[in-house]
Amino acid sequence: MEYFVDVVLPIPLARFFTYRISEQESDFLKPGMRIAVPFGKSKIYTALCHQVHQNPPEAYEAKEIHQILDDVPLVNAIQLKHWQWIADYYMCTLGEVVRSALPSAFLLESETLILPNKNQEVDEADLRDDEFLVFEALQHQESLKIDDICQIIDRKNALPVVNRLLSKQVVVQKEELYEQYKPKRVRFVKLSGIYQNEEKLQELLDGLTRAPKQSHAVLSLFQLQAETKKPIKSSSLEKEGNVSKAVIKSLIDKQVFEQYYLQRDRVEHHGEATKEGIELNRPQQEAHDSLQLQFSSKKRVALLHGVTSSGKTEVYIKLLQRVVDEGKQALYLLPEIALTSQLINRLRDYFGNKVSVYHSKYNLNERVEVWNNVLQQKEKAQIIIGARSALFLPYSDLGLIVVDEEHDQSFKQFDPAPRYHARDAAIVLSQYHDCHCLLGSATPSIESMKNAKTGKYGHAEINERFGKVLMPDIELVDLKEATKRKKMKGHFSERLLEEMTETLNAGEQIILFQNRRGFAPIVECTTCGHSPQCPNCDVSLTYHRYKNQLRCHYCGYHMVSEASCMACGSFTLDKKGFGTEQVQEELVTLFPDTRVGRMDLDTTRGKHAYEKIISAFEQQEFDILVGTQMVTKGLDFRNVSLVGIMNADTLLNFPDYRSHERSFQLLTQVAGRAGRTKKRGKVLVQTYNPYHRILQQVSTNDYTEMFENQLYEREHFKYPPVVRVIKVTLKDKDFNKLNEASEWFAEALKNLLPQERILGPEYPPVARIRRYYLKNILIKINLSRSPSKIKKGIKRIEKTFNAISQYKSVRLVYNVDHI
Ligand code: ADP
Ligand code: ZN
Ligand code: ZN
Question: Is the peptide bond before 721 cis (omega within 30 degrees of 0)?
């Protein structure tokens, strides 16, 4: 008898590869175990076992495997099925899904670089002989490839040794090094409650006459508070009030002062759950009960539509509690984890150490650890919070998947393949686990709301904010009018300046939203009309004043910005449009005494830069936060009472069938940052089109009308969710070849699918990126037709296409549903 195994290699080839194994190996191997296999002339790959069988491959002689790497499967059957679904549905290969699903530490290959772990004391006695050889070699060399290690230990397969060394943390794999963010703990002090009363305070001061230092400290605190109207840091009392640490301590001991920490540890959470249960308020309870009922009456997916700050999270927590009590696993998906430390802490308050976080920005060790904890169904990984990659963990018994902010665009992965949508893939995963899936949003996507309205999904609503806080008051400011009447200072209308001044005087904070980063997106010579373009992409370069650079926002190209025109040499350069950098700069002149922070791609590049800005703003280290999209997401700042949208028009004019839906979502979300406690928040939206329907709907908070309008337009123009869409993008550096190839492809599609609407080929708005010319073909498919058949047809066309030698260099990219 001969024995064979089909394996998945983490490469973009759409097939299994067959290797020869022994009878013992065939008994031992199970799908989902890793195997080291030779590939090509001299490469080694880590592959996943798919199936053991006895049929020799027809086209080639099967090679033997090197070694089995796992004792038990690392990937379970549900995962394999789910990944296959992703590959089929999103038109990529299973290998591509595997490569992106498994932490790279699980996928060592000949080219992987191994480094000594400098942070670990190694006891050489703990090492086996072969391990020691590698360890020693790494004392003399900075890094080794797996191939080098094979030579050192004189064996054709080094993966088992390296895997052991990795788990002993003697070596590390080369990767970008990420560190966890450990914020400083900041201590604040305030007068104890009883002394807030003037009489009591006087009594206190009288009692302190013989302790002049203490009485000075009390007065200083009192004064600082009156001046700044802000929480007072212990350190500022020391510095500005000239009070010693010892005096502060003795006043705390005497319970005259109270100390507290405004900012807790954002990522690490030590210790146990601190909150017992939650009391839902009535609207929350009703939504919760209704969801329970719908879940138990066979609705697998439900949509929770609750306005911003209505307390959706509390409802999720209640539902999660039940799952945890049943001993099952739960997954809480979020659009972007960088934005979630607030939420992680909230969940840990309830579930203590049962919450683990999984994110591609975490370092490899941490990711491997979480993977193993989920695989072994450890209690500490019972609830996983994560961005889209958390979908791929080895869950065996999910009880609930929550998809928070389900409308968010960042659930879609655009590059590289698999180009999947995590919300949609989560719904499929819930089917495989036979568990419930809850989508939540203040501004649900059109497709989810449609599914809720047609009864495909369950549906519940919360229409008021928690604590009956009023929805923010949204005012549209007409920029055309303001400009005509000369009521603008830079990009600020008088109206916005008025509100800002008032807010600052009250000691409250402001968020300003501008959709673009940089200083000015277009620099144009008024003499000759020249405007500098990116040499790699079809876009103009954005001016960044701080670095005095012109930068491309598509490929990162940058150059020094010259004072004179590059074409004609004249000094008549005009800067058009504006970005966050310019807003920040104008603020310096408009409000010279006010501290301003900025949050966009440029200021959040460094390690933890993002968390630092948020935590500084929370601690009121600055008063105004200027930012792009990043400031819109789920953040809960207590002291923000004014939000200003600098210019709503750039959002609305984006050429995309979803741009109106997105504008509504974005503006509503950013408006939702205002006035989350007690006082009603104020939002000012500056625009040249105050009568634009979407802006009217934002200002009246009319989701329903927005939904109906948008659905009507989608029906009229045939866009999702009324039809399905697949976008085929062709890319090549050669302009003529690309045109020819895309004509060929479109023609083939039209022949194959005479009943579908095939649009294009057409250039996208930015028709060249990173030196590649782009062309799109859009396929619209009626809901009544089988998308899987159509996808198979397209794949057949691709095969023929790839066989045409002159098109060999042309790359094909598919985007399914979300284009
Ligand atoms: P959403 O996610 O809907 O925007 P959150 O869940 O963030 O709203 O809730 C808004 C605020 O109200 C949070 O600070 C939260 O702690 C508070 N909150 C909501 N529901 C309750 C509740 N039942 N008990 C106590 N506090 C609540
Ligand atoms: Zn010029
Ligand atoms: Zn570019």
Answer: yes
Number of residues in the chain? 819
**What pLDDT, on a 0 to 100 scale, did the predictor assign at position 150?**
85
> What is the tens place of the pLDDT at every residue in 273-297?
566 667 899 999 999 999 999 999 8
For ligand 3, an ion, list residues with CB under 5 A: 534, 536-537, 552, 554-555, 557
pLDDT at site 137:
87
Of 313, 318, 635, the residue with max ligand 1 atoms within 8 A of its CB, to mutate for a pocket test, comes to 313
pLDDT at 181: 41
Kindly state if the Cβ of 318 falls inside 6 Å of ligand 1.
no
> Would residue 539 be called left, alpha or beta, if left means φ above 0 and alpha means ψ between -120 and 50 degrees?
beta
For 116, phi then psi, to 5°, come to -70, 145
Q: Which of 600, 303, 240 is nearest to 453 (CA)?
A: 303
Q: What structural domains does the chain harbor? A: 3-101 (3.40.1440.60), 117-170 (no CATH), 193-255 (no CATH), 282-468 (3.40.50.300), 473-518+580-712 (3.40.50.300), 520-577 (no CATH), 723-816 (3.30.70.600)
Pocket residue to mutate for ligand 1, from 304, 309, 633, most atoms within 8 A of Cβ: 309
For the entire predicted model, the pTM comes to 0.84
Structure confidence by residue, pLDDT tens digits, 452-467 = 999 999 999 999 999 8
Nearest in space to 541 (alpha carbons), one of 495, 577, 494:
577
Cβ(517) – ligand 1 distance below 6 Å: no
Q: Kindly state if the Cβ of 469 falls inside 6 Å of ligand 1.
A: no
Atom of ligand 1 lying closest to residue 310 CA: 3
Q: Ligand 1 within 6 A of 79 CB?
A: no
